[in-house]
TrEMBL record:
Name of the protein this chain belongs to: Dolichyl-diphosphooligosaccharide--protein glycosyltransferase subunit STT3
Regions that span the bilayer: 12-29, 41-58, 78-99, 173-193, 205-228
Superkingdom to which the source organism belongs: Archaea
Classification via InterPro entries: STT3_N
Length: 244
C-alpha cells in the first residue's frame, strides 16, 4: 500500500520508511504471526487506504478518489468492527472541512459512504448515531471514574472481572503505549506534526484528520491495551513531513 502511495503522492524513501514502521510496530508485529490469518492487518491497512484516497480527492480535486475512499470504508465495515472509530473520525474532520472550504468531494464521500454502509447493513448508521452518547459516557467513565463514580467498580460482581484479569482489556500506561507503537514511529509521528500543521488549504485536511484521529485513539485506550493499534496508523501519515 505504501509503494502505491509513493507512486501517487510521496517519495520512495518516505513510503518505504512508513511501510517499515507500520509492520514493525511491536503491538502489531506480535499479533500478526506468520502462517496465521488475523484481522489485525485491517486495523492499520484499511484506515490508511481510506484516508489516503480521501486526501487525494481533496488535493487533486477528483471526485473519483472520493468514490474509491467510500468503497474502501464500506468494505472495511464488513471486515472488522473497528470501522466505527474511523467513521466517527472522518465524520468530524470532513464536517469541519466542508464548513470551512465548501469542498464538494468531501461531501460526496460522506454521502456515498453513509448510503453504501446503510445499504449493506440497514440500520447500521442510525445505530451509530444512537451509540454516540453511550460511547461518550463510557469513555468519560473510564477516564474519570472518581468524578463520575463509574469505571472498574461497575465491572465487578460475583464472578471474576475480565477487565481486571485480561491484560488487553486494561488501559495501558505511557510506557506501554511507547512499547506498543514503537519509539521510532512515535518520534517520527510527533516530529512530523509541526511541518504537517504548516500546510494550508487542501493539505490542511490531512493535519486536521490526523489530530482528530490521534485524540480518538487516546480516548479508545481507556477501553484497553488492544486499542493501541488505533494509534499506529495516524503517525504514519506524518512520515513525509518528518523527513522533509
Amino acid at each position: 500500500m505504501f509503494l502505491f502511495a509513493g507512486s501517487l503522492d510521496c517519495d520512495d524513501l518516505s513510503s518505504g520508511l512508513a511501510g517499515l514502521l507500520a509492520v514493525t510496530a511491536p503491538f502489531y508485529f506480535m499479533r500478526t504471526v506468520p502462517g496465521f490469518y488475523d484481522t489485525d492487518i485491517f486495523n492499520v491497512l484499511f484506515p490508511l487506504m481510506v484516508v489516503h484516497s480521501l486526501y487525494l480527492s481533496v488535493r487533486r480535486d477528483d471526485w473519483r478518489w472520493s468514490t474509491v475512499s467510500a468503497m474502501l470504508i464500506t468494505l472495511y465495515s464488513t471486515a472488522w468492527n473497528g470501522w466505527q472509530i474511523l467513521y466517527y473520525v472522518l465524520l468530524v474532520s470532513c464536517g469541519i472541512f466542508i464548513l470551512r472550504y465548501r469542498d464538494r468531494n468531501i461531501l460526496l464521500f460522506l454521502l456515498i459512504t453513509t448510503a453504501l454502509i446503510e445499504l449493506t447493513d440497514p440500520g447500521r448508521i442510525p445505530s451509530l448515531i444512537r451509540g454516540i452518547p453511550l460511547m461518550a459516557s463510557g469513555a468519560a467513565g473510564q477516564l474519570f471514574p472518581e468524578i463520575l463514580n463509574t469505571g472498574s467498580s461497575t465491572m465487578t460482581g460475583a464472578f471474576p472481572s475480565p477487565y481486571a484479569n485480561i491484560t488487553e482489556l486494561q488501559p495501558p500506561g505511557f510506557a506501554e503505549i511507547i512499547t506498543g507503537t514503537g519509539p521510532g514511529l512515535l518520534i517520527a509521528g510527533i516530529m512530523g506534526l509541526e511541518p504537517l500543521r504548516r500546510l494550508r488549504g487542501d493539505d490542511g485536511f490531512l493535519f486536521m484528520t490526523v489530530m482528530i484521529w490521534l485524540v480518538a485513539g487516546l480516548v479508545c485506550l481507556s477501553g484497553g491495551l488492544r486499542f493501541i493499534e488505533v494509534l499506529i496508523a495516524p503517525p504514519l501519515c506524518n512520515i513525509r513531513p518528518f523527513l522533509q
